Amino acid sequence: xxxxxxxxxxxxxxxxxxxxxxxxxxxxxxxxxxxxxxxxxxxxxxxxxxxxxxxxxxxxxxxxxxxxxxxxxxxxxxxxxxxxxxxxxxxxxxxxxxxxxxxxxxxxxxxxxxxxxxxxxxxxxxxxxxxxxxxxxxxxxxxxxxxxxxxxxxxxxxxxxxxxxxxxxxxxxxxxxxxxxxxxxxxxxxxxxxxxxxxxxxxxxxxxxxxxxxxxxxxxxxxxxxxxxxxxxxxxxxxxxxxxxxxxxxxxxxxxxxxxxxxxxxxxxxxxxxxxxxxxxxxxxxxxxxxxxxxxxxxxxxxxxxxxxxxxxxxxxxxxxxxxxxxxxxxxxxxxxxxxxxxxxxxxxxxxxxxxxxxxxxxxxxxxxxxxxxxxxxxxxxxxxxxxxxxxxxxxxxxxxxxxxxxxxxxxxxxxxxxxxxxxxxxxxxxxxxxxxxxxxxxxxxxxxxxx
Length: 452
Fold this sequence. Notes:
- The protein is an alpha/beta fold.
- 39% of the residues lie in helices and 11% in strands.
- It has 16 helices and 8 strands.
- Belongs to the complex I 51 kDa subunit family.
- NDH-1 shuttles electrons from NADH, via FMN and iron-sulfur (Fe-S) centers, to quinones in the respiratory chain.
């Protein structure tokens, strides 16, 4: 019924009616190049869009489909497109593909770009037509060297076939597409930091408003969408909104399918295209195979290192944004990580917070100074040298770096797993307080001192 995208031994039959993102994938994992892609109905949606739909009709179709961003934030794509200016005199517009996939435990966009580069190109072509953007950039994570090679070859194939460049499909519409590799910064996943980096500036987030739709790259109207988001567009144009909405399970408020996965000590780690709204337990047990022999599930993260930890009983939630929110965190990228019973949570969180502290752009004080402070205390607790009050101070930092208190969402994402880990596994953190100091109440730091 679904596909494990890495490893031919795990491939299972899928169809265009149920798996719009993955049905074209080859069993040997090799890229689907232009000839094969077109034989598998590739660019049919682009031809339909150019021949029968106006730009506004494409925007409306995507809006009506309920497609939401697949990078983690989940903002409605059609609404985002609708923010682009209507003024026809503003004829220099840009479409940026956010392919800076640096969220730990997430690799879904990599698969799409390495194995189906033309699906992304077709999605960007239709989207550019809708947005009246004459140039597009794929802002690619620098470490994705194979994806860069495959995307550049696919761009050349599309140009030679008249699917990119001047007067595409005889429509009079021009669209140039450029693959740009980044310098390796997690913060470039934030769209305005990505824009700054593309312009050759330091990758700091920008103040908003103005939003990129009004003032984006080089001061021009700009739309930024995730790889997986753009790859959904051709199927929506080809098959319509009713079909797209029918793909999700009953009860899901999100429509379509999603690339979902599980990593960690599971029997069958992998990536699958599945309908929104299936129980997370089905993903964990039926697709990931449950835990390996000798390991038990201690907790899990639903979608990358920036999402909160959940307990085994939370696997009964429906796996879509609202379903995961009901049990206390975010769905994020939808690629879950299983934490086994042999993992110490203090060590795991210390490792995570080191990553987030290193990747902070340093622009705002709470993030720049707060995250290294959390690392220092977690390292002390890990080594059994913590002080009374350290846990309260960490919880204070979780509050002080929470949503709305920093310049962008980097710090809130960094401390969300920390707060949930202390909530569910506080005794492991308390065990790191040095015995000689455990009774010294004079060293307790009130959480109010750090903004709790």
